[in-house]
Design goal:
The complex is a heterodimer of chains A (about 160) and B (about 350). Chain A is mostly helical. Chain A is about 75% helix and about 0% strand. In chain B, helix 4 crosses helix 5 (about 155-170), helix 6 (about 180-190) crosses helix 7 and helix 7 packs antiparallel against helix 8 (about 235-255). Chain B contains 11 helices and 13 strands. The chains are: A mainly alpha (about 160), B alpha+beta (about 350). The interface between A and B is medium-sized, with 31 and 26 residues. Chain A: One of its GO terms (biological process) is DNA-templated transcription initiation.
Chain lengths: ~160, ~350
C-alpha cells in the first residue's frame, strides 16, 4: 500500500475520529495534519506495521492524549480553550439541552477516558483493540470507561 | 441509556467534520517542507562530522553552499585541499526556542593546508566592524541584525555574521555552525563531561557555582554556566573567549580519549546526540565521509588565539582592530602561515590548560 492509497481510504475516517476526540473541527484538523505529516515522512515504517490503519490511529490517539507535551499544541491552544466553540445550550427544548449537554460534558473528561469512550461508542471497537490503541491492558480500558460513565451519570443527576 | 446517548451524541456531531481536500493539500505541503529541512540537516550532518572530528560538533549546524558543494558531491573528503575555515557562533538564549539575541562567542576554526593542527581564533564580540545595512557596530550585533525580530532566524543571523567575518578577515568561510546553550549542554553530556583547566577561579554571576583554578570535569549544565561568565573576569568578554577555547580544547581531548575521532561508529553515536533537530535517519548521507580529513591532522591539540585588538576610542565600548598586530595577524591567516606568526608572537597564544 502506498501513502496515497492509505490517505485516500483513511483520511476521512481519521478526521471524523479526531472530531469526536477534540469535539471541534479546527483542532481535529491540526491533530490529523500533524499525525499524517509524520505518517508521510515515515511511511515505510508505518507500512511495515501489521495494520497500518491501527498504527496510525494509535499515533493520532497518542498525539491527542499527550498534546500538552507536543509543540503543535501551543499553536492549537492559541485558538482558545478546548471546546470553546461547542455551542452552549440555552433555550432549546429540554431534550435538546440534555443531548447537547452530553457532548459538552465529554470535554471535561480526562483525554484518555474520552478516547476510550469514542473508541467504544463511536468506533464500536472491541475492548481488546481499544487496549491496543491506547497502549494499556484490557482491564484498564474497562475501568476507565466505567469511570467515565460514572462521571457522566453524576452530571445527569446534577442536571 | 447513557450509552445510547453517547452513541447518539457522536453520530449527531459527525457533520462537524470538515472536508478532507484542503487538509490533504496542507499535509502534503507541510511534509514537503519538513523533508527539505531534514535533507538540510542530513547535509549538515556531513559537515558536522568534520566539526565533530575536531571536537566541536554542534547542532544547528549548516554548511555554506559554495564551499560545501565539493564536500557533498561524493568526492572523498581528503580531496579537499588547502586551508579550511569553519565559523562557530555561540548564541545566547535558552532552550531551542527564540529569542536568540547576540552571538557572544565568535570562533573561527582554521585548519592549515598542511593539516598540522587546528587553530581556534576568537573574534571579540565587541570588535568594531562594518555591518551591511547597519553601519559601524559591534560584531555580536551582526547576528541580531540578520536574525531579525520578533522571530529570530538562525540562518539569517549566521549569514550576516559570516559575511561580516569574511569581509573583516578576507578568508573564505567554508562551513559554519550556530551553537545554542542547549546544544552545548547536550554535546558535553554526550562525551560524559569535558575537562576544563582554568588559570584562575571563576565565580558565576548567574548561579552559585564557583569554578576553582585548575582542571575540573564539567557536565553540560556547568559548561554552559562557565561559558556565560564574563562579569567577574578581569578581562571580561576577552577572558570568556579564552575560556571558550579551553572548553573546546577539553572537548577535543574528551573526544580523543573516547576514540570518537577515529572510530566512525562512535562518532556517529556522538553526533546523533544533539537532538531531535539533527536526527539523521537511516537513509541519510554517510556521516563518516568527512572523517577522512582526520588522520591527516598531525595533532588535534588546538592553538588558541585571539584577534589582536586595540583600546577603545573615547568612551565607546567598541574595540578597534589593533592597527599593527591585528593587520599582521589577518595577513598571516589569509596566507595560511599562522604557525610562523605564532612562533614570532608566542605571548599571543592562550594557554589551553
Amino acid at each position: 500500500m502506498t501513502y496515497e492509497e492509505f490517505a485516500d481510504a483513511r483520511l476521512a475516517p481519521l478526521l471524523r475520529y479526531a472530531v469526536m476526540l477534540t469535539g471541534e473541527p479546527h483542532q481535529a484538523q491540526d491533530l490529523v495534519q500533524e499525525t499524517m505529516v509524520r505518517v508521510q515522512l515515515n511511511w515505510r515504517r508505518v507500512a511495515r506495521a501489521d495494520s497500518p490503519e491501527r498504527y496510525v490511529r494509535r499515533m493520532l490517539t497518542n498525539q491527542y492524549v499527550d498534546w500538552r507535551r507536543g509543540s503543535w499544541v501551543r499553536r492549537v491552544l492559541l485558538r482558545g480553550e478546548p471546546d470553546a466553540s461547542v455551542p452552549v445550550p440555552t433555550d432549546h427544548a429540554q431534550s435538546a439541552v440534555d443531548r447537547d449537554q452530553v457532548w459538552s460534558w465529554l470535554s471535561r473528561l480526562p483525554r484518555r477516558q474520552r478516547a476510550a469512550l469514542v473508541l467504544r461508542y463511536y468506533e464500536d471497537l472491541p475492548d481488546v483493540e481499544i487496549a491496543d490503541i491506547l497502549g494499556c491492558a484490557v482491564g484498564t480500558v474497562r475501568s476507565s470507561i466505567s469511570r467515565a460513565l460514572a462521571t457522566l451519570r453524576a452530571e445527569y443527576v446534577e442536571a | 441509556m447513557i450509552e445510547d446517548d453517547l452513541h447518539a451524541a457522536f453520530a449527531r456531531h459527525e457533520p462537524l467534520t470538515p472536508s478532507t481536500g484542503p487538509l490533504r493539500v496542507a499535509i502534503d505541503r507541510l511534509a514537503a517542507v519538513r523533508r527539505r529541512r531534514r535533507q538540510r540537516f542530513q547535509a549538515a550532518g556531513v559537515t558536522l562530522a568534520l566539526l565533530g572530528a575536531l571536537g566541536v560538533g554542534v547542532p544547528q549546524l549548516r554548511p555554506d553552499r559554495p564551499a560545501a558543494d565539493p564536500l557533498m558531491s561524493g568526492k572523498p573528503a581528503d580531496a579537499q585541499s588547502g586551508a579550511l575555515n569553519v565559523l562557530l557562533l555561540g548564541v545566547d538564549g535558552f532552550g531551542e526556542q527564540p529569542p536568540y539575541r547576540l552571538a557572544d562567542s565568535v570562533l573561527l576554526v582554521h585548519i592549515p593546508a598542511d593539516r598540522s593542527r587546528p587553530y581556534l581564533i576568537s573574534l571579540p564580540r565587541d570588535l568594531e566592524v562594518s555591518i551591511p545595512g547597519r553601519g559601524i557596530d559591534k560584531l555580536n550585533r551582526a547576528f541580531h541584525s540578520g536574525a531579525g525580530e520578533p522571530r529570530p532566524d538562525l540562518d539569517a543571523g549566521y549569514d550576516l555574521t559570516r559575511q561580516v567575518v569574511a569581509d573583516l578577515t578576507g578568508v573564505r568561510v567554508d562551513a559554519g555552525a550556530v551553537l545554542t546553550f542547549a546544544g552545548l549542554r547536550r554535546i558535553t553530556d554526550a562525551v560524559d563531561g569535558v575537562e576544563v583547566c582554568l588559570p584562575e577561579e571563576v565565580r558565576s554571576w548567574h548561579t552559585r557555582r564557583v569554578f576553582p583554578a585548575g582542571c575540573q570535569r564539567l557536565d553540560g549544565a556547568s559548561s554552559v554556566d562557565l561559558l556565560r561568565q564574563r562579569r567577574y573576569l578581569p578581562d571580561g568578554a576577552l577572558d570568556r573567549d579564552r575560556n571558550a577555547q579551553r572548553y573546546v580544547a577539553g572537548l577535543i581531548r574528551a573526544a580523543v580519549a573516547k576514540d570518537v575521532l577515529t572510530n566512525p561508529v562512535r562518532l556517529n553515536a556522538l553526533l546523533s546526540v544533539p537532538g531531535k533537530g539533527l536526527a539523521v535517519d537511516d537513509d541519510g548521507l554517510p556521516l563518516t565521509r568527512l572523517v577522512a580529513v582526520l588522520p591527516k591532522l598531525k595533532s588535534v591539540d588546538p592553538v588558541g588565539l585571539s584577534l589582536p585588538v586595540g583600546q577603545p576610542v573615547d568612551d565607546r565600548t567598541l574595540l578597534p582592530l589593533d592597527p599593527k598586530q591585528g593587520r599582521a595577524f589577518l595577513a598571516a591567516l589569509r596566507e595560511d602561515r599562522l604557525a610562523q606568526w605564532v612562533a614570532q608572537h608566542p605571548e599571543q597564544v592562550n594557554p589551553a590548560r
